[in-house]
Amino acid sequence: MNTQTSLHQSNVTTENHLKIASLITTMVIMGILGIYYQTTWSMVETWHRSDTYAHGFLILPFSIYMIWTRRQQLMSLDHQPNFFALVILCGVGFMWLIATLASVQIITQYMLIAMIPIIVWAILGNRILIATAFPLVYLFFAVPFGDILIPPLIDFTADFTVSALQLSGIPVFREGTYFSLPTGNWSVVEACSGLRYLIASVTLGTLYAYLTYFSFKRRVIFILLSIIVPIIANGIRAYLIVMTGHLSGMTLAVGVDHLVYGWVFFGFVMLLLFWIGSYWREDDTNETKQAAAITRPNVETNNSSSLTRTMLMACAVFAITFIWPISATHLEKQTVLTESPEIKINNLTGNWSINSSPMFDWEPIYVGTPTKFYNQYQNNQHTVNLYITYYHNQQQGNELINHGNILVTETDHPWRIVDETIHTIVINSQEINIRQTQLHSHTAKQLVWQWYWLGDDETINPYVTKALLARDKLFSNNDGGAEIILASDYNNTPDEAIQIMTEFLIDMRPHILEGLHNTSDPL
After folding, report:
1. CB 367 within 8 A of CB 400
2. What's CA 65's distance to the chain center, in Å?
3. Which is it for strands 353-354 and 416-427: parallel, antiparallel or unpaired?
4. What is the tens place of the pLDDT at every residue in 439-469?
5. CA-to-CA distance for 258 and 252, rounded, in angstroms?
6. Each residue of 58-82: pLDDT tens digit?
7. Exposed/middle/buried for residue 99 (C-beta within 10 Å: 0-12, 13-18, 19+)
8. Any idea what the Cα angle at residue 90 is, between residues 88 and 92, rounded to 5°?
9. Whose C-alpha in 295, 354, 362, 462 is 20 to 30 A from the C-alpha of 1?
């Protein structure tokens, strides 16, 4: 009898301590989200602005609900603060700092979300972390991730649609993501990439797999299907829309209605996927056994940590997480320039002269307030346009690497991208990689070369550029960076423009780099 009474008291004590520790953990998490309010708000603002990521408002309630349904099992678990989690928290905080300095918003958001399970781990311990692993990992779906997938999804959709049309016996002429049929012209743009379908499918599919299956294998298989099925379904959707427009003489599925058809088709595909998946659902027998094994209290050990240790751990978590926003603010202030720099390209060679009346019918599009340098150079009958865009005081929305910095817009623009490759040239025994893009309009063809410059480094990789920016902000007081673009017209093949621009770079590259160095370090 005494043993049963002692066990009951132990369980009551464990539950009371866990309730208090859980409340403290919740308050700490809310405080961290407040400390990192800029990162938190960047996610909320994206959910509100973009229909693609509106599901972010539901992720936290879903996670809370999943934890709440297991509250009885959680209440009998012992909880011990884990000091090793503080080391991991330091690493995640430092990664947030680097991403902030590099203005990589998506990484800052992921690092902030990653802090939540680590805080649970630090304050409540291993067993609570394991028991709530899925709801905590599910929080990562709140991060508005996916823009990087748009180009490959567009390419796949275009490839699938054109191949299906050709198999249907319809002649197709294709240039990049644009293609023409005898009845009209089509293009695969961002809205047709299927990103919304993919994100919705993976988010719902993962939740469905967790609630429907208990074996790890079945969950993984269903999640993989929720990734593959919407990608293929989007290709079929695009093909059916083009066929509908073609067979109707371009009177159906050529406007907003084809988006409606797309969502109806996607809804049918997802219902079919969930219906088929329900045939392999599992009952809760295994889950009950697993829960019982996890929640069985260990009466031979201390089932809870003291309130003092919990409070000390909460204070340590606050202290560690508070360091990084302060460091970011300090480092950002050190790199601020009060005056806008000016780009000057001097010491022109005798081979090239500046066209006094340059005719610009195309120029790249940039966000923020960069310093711009545009000139047209002429050598006999050949012309090369030089565009230099220099960013200083870089921060979110005013940065060298931004999805808003583009060569052409998708719609309402006379130019369109038909091909993108990496081109390598050799100048003074030095290999230089350049991103090469072919632009076509109704009346002209243009070849564009572009690459990035930061200090003594040149690269075409946007991720390397971000890393270099973080390095410069962390170890120096200069965050300047530029994008260099050359453009030249051609009539038949891009080789015509390649030869001209190579000659221009051989002559002018030293003067361009000198001008950028003077801009970056005017003293």
Report:
1. no
2. 27
3. unpaired
4. 988 888 899 999 999 988 899 999 999 999 8
5. 8
6. 999 999 988 988 888 887 777 788 8
7. buried
8. 70
9. 295
